[in-house]
Write a structure and sequence with these properties.
single chain; 146 residues; 2 domains; four-stranded mixed beta sheet; 8 helices; 42% helix; 9% strand; Retrovirus_Pol_polyprotein; Integrase zinc-binding domain-containing protein; Integrase_H2C2
Length: 146
């Protein structure tokens, strides 16, 4: 719980969740999307861990800002899991962790990941120019395939 308190929005959220009664003063200090999700009762606290729930999904751990890069590395770069595509990495993160704007940060991380950029780069031209083929004189002399 100590690391959550270091982040301003998480600290305010912790105070709100630990109080018995609503505090409009504290609520007014929350920024979006924290405020919207708090008023929609998407956050809750269990055993010192802060959780977030999207619609009817399972509860996801709210990730502290310092740990986001570790999560992205673990779910995208980890060699033993295979190098994941952006869609597969999104699936894995979406089922485990939450932080504001996580999808945008994940896309940016993958788009700037050097190994991905090298692997996805087109090398040379894909197709050659059409070539004229002389009419064959005998059957099966020339075979073409599309």
């Amino acid at each position: 719980m100590m690391t959550y308190a270091k982040h301003k929005q998480c600290g305010i959220l912790l105070q709100l969740l630990q109080q018995k009664y609503r505090s409009p003063e504290l609520e007014s200090q929350l920024e979006e999307p924290w405020l919207r999700d708090y008023t929609d009762n998407r956050f809750f606290l269990i055993d010192g861990l802060l959780y977030h729930r999207e619609n009817h999904t399972s509860a996801l751990t709210v990730v502290y800002r310092d740990h986001i890069s570790l999560i992205l590395q673990e779910f995208h770069d980890f060699l033993y899991m295979g190098h994941m595509s952006e869609d597969r990495t999104k699936e894995r993160v979406a089922s485990t962790a939450w932080w504001p704007k996580w999808e945008e940060e994940l896309s940016e991380y993958i788009s700037t990941f050097e190994r991905c950029q090298k692997a996805n780069k087109n090398h040379g031209s894909k197709y050659g120019l059409p070539q004229h083929i002389e009419e064959p004189k005998h059957p099966w002399e020339t075979i073409n395939m599309d």
